[in-house]
Amino acid sequence: METEFTPLVSLAGGLLIGLASVLLMAARGRVFGATGILAGFLSPSSSTDWAWRAALLAGMVTGPLVYLAFAGDFPAIEVPVSKAMMIVGGLIVGVGVTYGSGCTSGHGVCGMARLSPRSIVATLTFMLFTGITVYVVRHVLGM
Description:
single chain; mainly alpha; 0% strand; globular
């Protein structure tokens, strides 16, 4: 399977994620961890806590519409696995997020930037198992 690397689009996305992380930390004193934000949205501690989470999630959901406005079309998205594999993968990620106390945005972006030892270990674990999974799926299972 061939993949397409888009350095400028990737750089722009990374800069926007970094900017959002810095702004959230500066404005709310909170780490930009997507799963933590979603969990707090589903069971907020207060109405102001819910409001900023709702605004951030709305931005994440409407982001593709902004892309559509500028590009004139949605980007082509190809998922080279079955729906069953995506469901299994999503469940595995959910378990990992629960046991790892966070996701790649919380640990990989914010935790690494803060030089958090726990986040460094979590991110290295994410990356190691991602590599192992890709190897097994592509070279052992031949998918």
